[in-house]
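Lecture notes, unit on protein representations.

Consider one protein chain, 198 amino acids long.
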Amino acid sequence: MKYIDLIKNIKQPIFSLQDLRLLHLQIYPYQLSQWFKRGDLIKLKNGLYALVEKSEQLKIETIAFHMYQPSYISLEWALAKYGLIPEITYNCTSVTAKTTRNFKNKFGNFIFRHLKKELFFGYNKIEENGQVYLIAEPEKALIDYIYLNSSKIKTQNDIDELRLNEFELRNLNVKKIKKYALVTNDSGVLKVLKLMKL
């Protein structure tokens, strides 16, 4: 198969080897390797590629969604997106019900932190220009962050170092935060919320 035939058959910017099999496209590993070396493909991880000519329209969140499932955007990336922390986040952070994994490719670093299955909720499905990804609600992004980092947040000084945006924090649904915190069944999370006066 020629590269031009691949483009005609692949409608989305990202495709996997499984997608090729489902479309009954007979493409050999050496062809993918050639197209990658030639600069026609971007390798996102083993078995997952992006078409260079369609890559400019790709959102980082969509790439993360395709890289490791089930997962949803959360933690620092989501907190920054919602304006809850002031820092620019360079690593795209997600939570997953699978084991913790990190991936690096042309688009950046993608961090997936394990969250137990019972806590895999509180996210929204976003569809923009044909691209899909899942992202935590702001309240859940906060709880996910506290849950996975509560051992490092012990004092008011630790809270201050998070540099949370007080204005945006006040706009969150406190009842929802408390409800999500109780589901974690983690005393450390409740202690941090008490320090935050939530």
